[in-house]
């Protein structure tokens, strides 16, 4: 028999249980994995929703607190510019462009050509 899907409360308990408060931020202390080499690491956690196995913890936090999925055309922005923060008050849906502009303003933007394997050319 497949394992039962955890409730919203169980997910919240798991999520909050693996964070530490830092000012207003709730910093993820669990598993992280960068999307690409050199990029920022985002926390991930197993999460069953439409058959997904793992999801970014900031996306899970947004979905649990807002009671809905993230718009598939949008990303989750960190208003605090802390990629490991899962405080729902610091998370906002936005376009990919807005998300990139946030990181440019914060000085954390990763450019494949400027910072990646092509940077020596
Ligand atoms: Zn934060």
Enumerate the strands of the largest sheet in spatial order, edge to edge or round the barrel. Answer: 3-4-5
* Total strand segments: 7
CATH topology: Homing Intron 3 (I-Ppo) Encoded Endonuclease, Chain A
The helical percent reads 25-40%
The outline comes out as globular
Number of domains: 1
Order of helix and strand elements from N to C terminus: HEEEEEHEEHH
Give the uncertain stretches in residue-range form. none
CATH class: Alpha Beta
Query: Which hetero ligands occur in this complex?
Result: zinc ion
Q: Characterize the main sheet.
A: 3 strands, antiparallel
Structural class: alpha+beta
Proportion of strand residues: 15-25%
CATH architecture: Alpha-Beta Complex
The whole-angstrom Rg is: 15 Å
Distance from N terminus to C terminus (CA atoms, Å) equals: 55 Å
User: What is the count of DSSP helices, taking H or I runs of 4+ residues?
Assistant: 4
pLDDT averaged over residues: 86
């Amino acid at each position: 028999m497949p394992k039962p899907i955890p409730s919203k409360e169980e997910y919240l308990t798991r999520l909050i249980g693996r964070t530490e408060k830092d000012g207003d931020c709730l910093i993820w202390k669990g598993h992280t994995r960068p999307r690409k080499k050199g990029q920022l690491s985002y926390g991930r956690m197993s999460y069953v929703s439409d058959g997904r196995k793992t999801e970014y913890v900031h996306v899970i936090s947004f979905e649990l607190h807002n009671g809905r999925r993230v718009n598939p055309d949008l990303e989750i922005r960190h208003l605090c510019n802390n990629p490991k923060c899962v405080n729902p008050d610091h998370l906002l849906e936005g376009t990919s462009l807005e998300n990139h502009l946030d990181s440019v303003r914060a000085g954390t933007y990763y450019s494949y050509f400027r910072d990646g394997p092509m940077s020596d050319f």
